[in-house]
Amino acid sequence: METLVTLCKRRGFIFLSSEIYGGYAGFFDYGPLGVELKNNIKAAWWKDFVHGRDDIVGLDSSIIMHPRTWEASGHVAGFSDPMTDCRETKKRYRADQIFVAPVWVAEMVAGAEAQFIGNIAFMEDASADEILKRAKVLRDVADKKHFKVIEEKLAEKREFDTIPEAELASILGPDATKPGSLTPARQFKLMFETHVGALQDASSVAYLRPETAQGIFNNYKNVLDTGRVKVPFGIAQIGKAFRNEITPRNFVFRCREFEQMEIEYFIQPDADWKSLHRQWIDTCIDWFVSIGLPREAIKEDVHPQEKLAHYAKACTDLSFKFPHGQQELEGIAVRGNFDLTQHQQYSGKNLEYFDEEKKAKYLPHVIEPSFGVDRAVLAVLTAAYDEDEVPNDKGVPEKRVILRFAPKVAPYKVAVFPLLKNKPELMERAQRIYKKVQKRWPAFWDAAGAIGRRYRRQDEIGTPWCITIDFDTIEKDGTVTIRDRDTTKQVRIHEDEVTAWIAEKMGEN
Ligand code: ATP
Fold this sequence. Notes:
The chain is an alpha+beta fold. It has 13 helices and 28 strands.
């Protein structure tokens, strides 16, 4: 993760928000390359799920909505995470993201009985080494010598918020030096509050939306009444969402301000939701593969029935092998008609759909694929990052850092280099080619330094092709070289064929 974070900052993909003030936890800014990458991911999603389908239409709803929306959706009453505080370190944790394991030690002297000396709490992504090191803190507290921690026992972990209060005194917090510092778990509200209008009292409280989905439910009737949609159909939306996360961590994986790409796909109440859910899961996996994620890094995590919300029929998360572990990338839930029922009740408006074929009125059920843009960016960066060795200008093998982006998400598709900077004929011809290419794709101009170094700079930002204009171009036959990022192989083609060549590689012909 650290390698990625450093690369992202160095090459202008992602910065800490308000960095000049020391950063602001949970907020990030996308730099010149990051915004291109992120926009390309969003554009690919919109193209595939909205423009590429006859049954889904788009929407862009407001971030701040009528506060009743969030009462109806259940967020005001229930959108919270369990939290625990450490009295010793003053740190705060999400109680369902720290685990507690009993520490058993055995005397190294053969035959001695294993002995329980306390519990340790650790973050869900802690490594086995870190956990063991922490377990040893307890041994020191217990002031025992020649003891060996029994590692297998550490696997007997429980979520912190399931631990009875009476046991808390024996638990060593994730960063504490003495047991007993963690407070009992209590609920922490995740919605950011603000006030709308001149008065700042309880009547003017409003919320920054914690998900884009409710904007879709709010507009479902508008879309029905104005469009030509018929159940089954979907409404898609890309936009910002805000959650006051207790522990924003792991770079852009968990932020307080982030972007979502969500679809509410409305189906008949008696539709075969199981097979539709399956289709959506497959479609989403295929889509992630199309933007460059290896299929084998994506896993399906089925929510157990007892952990589902009462109205939900099923939920499958797609998780990805991020640098900090296999974690949720997208959720695909079957939500029944809970949301529309609630909004119908809270707004007093009839939201029923009249099905011409069935001659029946009903509130459609929904399947909700909910993608996180920032997690998709992190996943694409993780999948693309690679290091290998290629010969430098002198033929000596040299390490290179490379982002193997799928061309459609790469910030720049092409870079154009004149072989030498101080030759006006080369510069002029290269500029002409550059301007032509730039009309169709984001292109990068670089005339500085040795060609090998220029290639390396493009490899590191994931530009798939580099075009070099040399003396053959201007004196001989008008050909240029195009060098492939992944194979480093070069082809020579006529300058007039460059755009068609790139278009073909981009699958745009
Ligand atoms: P988690 O369990 O990781 O908190 P969640 O189950 O609450 O996530 P959902 O409410 O299902 O997440 O949101 C749908 C998607 O939105 C997630 O799969 C994720 O991609 C994205 N997402 C949710 N919370 C965040 C966040 N704090 N930062 C970045 N992306 C997020």
